[in-house]
Amino acid sequence: MKIFVGNLSRNATTDSLRQEFEKFGQVVSVDIIKDKFSGESKGFGFVEMPSKAEAEAAISGMSGRDVDGRTLNVNEARPRNDNRGGGSGGGRRF
């Protein structure tokens, strides 16, 4: 199960995030999203856990938890919606 982790500290690393989530079970992958130009964290990332039960325990255990002075926003990741603008020009027809 893929988990969204928001409001991450700029100091968060994949290793530190993995350690926090491994308290709840096996972690398959950790990905902190970074700005492609600056390389700095965008303040959110994803953790993947193979067991749904462990992932749900991690969500309830980590959501609202203070890590590096930031209150984490943790929930099940939703599929990305690729409708990111650039579509029909605001509904105008030419």
- How many separate domains? 1
Please count the beta strands (DSSP E, at least 2 residues each).
6
Strand residue content: 25-35%
Spell out the helices and strands N to C. EHEEHEEE
Task: Describe the 3D structure.
There is one protein chain. The chain has a single domain (2-76), classed as RRM (RNA recognition motif) domain (Alpha-Beta Plaits, 2-Layer Sandwich), CATH 3.30.70.330. It has helices at 14-22, 52-62; strands at residues 2-6, 29-34, 41-48, 66-67, 70-71, 73-76. It has 2 helices and 6 strands, in the order E-H-E-E-H-E-E-E. Helix content is 21%, strand content 29%. The strands form 2 sheets. Strands 2-3-1-6 form a 4-stranded antiparallel sheet, covered by helices on one side. The chain has a two-stranded antiparallel sheet with strand order 4-5. It is globular. It is an alpha+beta fold. A hairpin with a 6-residue loop joins strand 2 (29-34) and strand 3 (41-48).
Write the layout of secondary structure elements.
Blueprint: E1 2-6, H1 14-22, E2 29-34, E3 41-48, H2 52-62, E4 66-67, E5 70-71, E6 73-76
